[in-house]
TrEMBL record:
This is Uncharacterized protein. It comes from Aspergillus kawachii. It comes from the Eukaryota.
Length: 407
């Protein structure tokens, strides 16, 4: 592959910032029916230099230029051949974006996340161009190679200080050599087997003397032939004490102890055989800062509605919408497939006797993600565990509007 590299390390000019480019692949296999078919990260990294500078740079992959090239590996030998060469660009020209080193995080990041931010690297997520995708053959191996580039628009300092329209000499050189290699396979990526679902919690698992809670689940379509369902829960406090309780509602998050099941026939040759239910793989993507610092929450202030107070006989309600395919992988939720949904049971992460007003001085610690259980007080100060058993089950049929997933 060295013959295709245009710029190498020894071509660097003195008195220019040393930069390196890396390609980080997500998978060594490209599946022809996956969407997106292949994505990876382009990382531009500053090497051993702390002086502030800026540059204009675009990671856009254009098959008509030679910054990135596509190489096809011969099945019979170690030779590679460049393919996908285009004389004219099929893409609209993009003005390179201005980037600065050190690379500062966005202003909305919390202080702890800013401290952990990698200021020496710019990461950009991209994919294989469509024109290259059309050339790929199942069973063959390919390499995307960075050949190197000179960046003429740059300067020391910040863009606000010196950014102009004239190139600077000498240019910054980003040497070639970074590459990623992948093999093309026909079809879709094999499903990751769904983890075994814990059995629904039985009412017999409640702790004697602890508050008794139950959850009732209901659902309804948002409209005729709708792609969305309205899910509603009602959590009721039954006693046995006559005192009120205040609790953290984490246990009832739709991202937690709710499961989607699809109806399957164990013997496909005998439709009359008794059907079974299999847990579906959920494909929700969460955009969460898991490394954010812990937060201190005052229970009585309840600014985000995370806490609730109930007296015996009262209920707390919550609702959300859900795709009518159950947010499942397409193979698990084809049109006409019967699905069921259930709260499988959970234990309150934090609760205490009294109303929220009684807890004006109570402060608990929540992990920075906002999706995890209360971190402190640990073990809820050893109060009895409040176990909420599994709810009732709701069922529906995946509507025909999801046919488009299989076009």
């Amino acid at each position: 592959m060295d013959t295709y590299i245009r710029w190498k390390e020894d071509h660097r000019q003195p008195d220019t910032p040393p930069l390196a480019l890396e390609l980080v692949e997500s998978s060594p296999t490209l599946w022809t029916e996956d969407e997106p078919t292949q994505s990876f990260t382009i990382a531009l990294r500053r090497v051993l230099n702390n002086q502030c500078f800026w540059l204009r740079w675009s990671p856009f992959i254009d098959p008509s230029n030679e910054e990135f090239v596509l190489l096809s590996h011969s099945p019979e030998s170690s030779k590679v051949e460049r393919i996908g060469i285009e004389k004219n660009s099929r893409y609209s020209p993009l003005l390179p974006s201005v980037h600065q080193f050190p690379n500062e995080p966005s202003s909305f990041y919390v202080e702890e996340a800013k401290k952990n931010w990698d200021r020496s690297t710019i990461n950009v997520r991209t994919g294989v161009p469509d024109t290259w995708i059309k050339l790929l053959e199942p069973g063959r191996t390919y390499t995307i190679l960075w050949t190197g580039k000179e960046i003429p628009y740059w300067d020391w300092g910040t863009p606000q200080q010196k950014m102009g329209t004239d190139p600077k000499w000498p240019p910054i050189l980003v040497p070639g050599g970074a590459h990623l290699t992948f093999t093309v396979q026909e079809g879709r990526r094999p499903h990751i087997p769904s983890p075994p679902t814990p059995p629904p919690i039985d009412p017999s698992e409640r702790v004697p003397g602890a508050p008794v809670l139950s959850l009732q689940l209901s659902c309804s379509p948002t409209g005729p032939l709708s792609e969305r369902l309205n899910m509603s829960i009602k959590v009721t406090y039954h006693g046995p004490s006559s005192d009120p309780i205040t609790f953290h509602a984490w246990a009832f998050s739709p991202l937690g102890s709710f499961s989607v099941y699809r109806r399957v026939c164990p013997d496909q040759s005998s439709p009359e055989s008794e059907p079974k239910w299999k847990t579906c793989i959920i494909h929700q993507s969460l955009h969460v800062f898991w490394d954010n610092p812990d937060r201190q929450l005052n229970v009585a202030e309840n600014e985000e509605g995370r806490f609730a107070t109930l007296f015996p006989g009262e209920s707390w309600s919550h609702s959300w919408s859900l795709d009518a395919d159950g947010d499942c992988e397409p193979e698990d939720a084809r049109p006409g497939q019967q699905l069921r949904y259930q709260f499988t049971g959970e234990t309150l992460d934090w609760w205490d006797w009294g109303t929220m007003e009684d807890h004006a001085q109570t402060v608990v610690t929540l992990p920075g993600s906002g999706l995890e259980p209360i971190k402190h007080p640990k073990n809820n100060d050893n109060r009895p565990k409040v176990v909420i058993p599994a709810s009732n089950i709701v069922e529906w049929i995946v509507p025909r509007c999801f046919d488009r997933q299989f076009d």
